[in-house]
Amino acid sequence: MRVGSERRPPARSSPLYSWVAALLRDEIEAGRLDPHKSVPSERVLSERYGVSRMTARHALETLMREGYVYRSPRRGTFVAEPRLRFSVGSFTRVMSDADSTPGTEVLAAVTLDPDPIMSALLGVPAGGQVYLLQRLRTAKGEPVAIENIHLSAARFPDLLEYDLTGSLWEILRTRYDVHPAKADARVVAVTLDRFEAETLGVKPGSPALVLSRTVFDAEDEVVELARDVYRGDRTEFAVTAPVDGGAA
Fold first, then answer.
1. Is residue 248 a part of any domain in this protein?
2. Is 2 within the bounds of a domain?
3. If we measure between CA atoms, which residue out of 134, 108, 148, 138 comes closest to residue 235?
4. Considering only CA atoms, which of 150, 184, 141, 186 is closest in space to residue 168?
């Protein structure tokens, strides 16, 4: 349903606040409410849709949890910036393609002893070590994601000596002639712990998306193991996959 079409009663199975939230969500996604523009007040929504102010407040709170709006003390509620759309790939490339200036802060770059599973996946020799690279990724200066990347220290000697604030994959290609080619990945919804929340500039317990990925090179050898934590209110993932042609 789109606002601007004839108003219809909410589905009986849906609470009134969900219906109001859906109408506003449609307006935002259709671009009829611009980022940082004021959202209709609880009183206006109450009168427009014939619901109580409590229902209107609940609708706005729902949209705020989903990241569609934000509240400014003593000023009101405003439309949030659209979510950044990601796929499994280079953060720097995705941000550049989206015309959003990527940024990086290195939180940790250390050498560790791996567990047996990590050793096997990364092909680390007996007694070998791995690098842990933890980085805060930003878009136009706003914290977006925390990357936690493990790589073989034997395969990439002196990696930590390079400038790690740019594209890691570009370093692997130009310095080590290793070309990331594909990734096995999964995305799960989580809530942020205190460290993650403080690093990303949101409240502990806020929603997040965790991308766990295993990246392979052209020879099908594992390049890196990564766990990336994305802000749930600012990001989404796009997936394109074939269908089997069976019944939906």
1. no
2. no
3. 138
4. 150
Residues 213 and 91 in one domain: yes
pLDDT at 90: 55
Residue 100 pLDDT more than 50? Answer: yes
Q: Going along the chain, which residue ranges are E strands?
A: 69-72, 76-79, 84-86, 102-112, 130-139, 142-152, 180-191, 207-217, 222-231, 235-237
Are 218 and 181 in contact, with CB atoms under 8 Å apart? yes
CATH code of 23's domain: 1.10.10.10
pLDDT at 216 over 70: yes
List 157's β-bridge partners, or say none: none
Residues 178, 106, single domain; the answer is yes
Question: d(Cα 21, Cα 46) in Å, to the nearest integer?
Answer: 12
Residues with Cβ < 8 Å from 21, sequence gap 6 or more? 59, 60, 62, 63
| Same-domain pairing of 104 and 206 | yes
Asked if residue 45 has pLDDT above 70, the reply is yes
Between 66-75, 117-126, 150-159, the lowest mean confidence (pLDDT) is in 66-75
Domain assignment present for residue 158? The answer is yes
Statement to judge: residues 59 and 103 lie in one domain: no
Of the listed ranges 84-98, 173-187, 234-248, the least confidently predicted one is 84-98
Residue 243 has a pLDDT of 60
Name residue 140's amino acid.
K
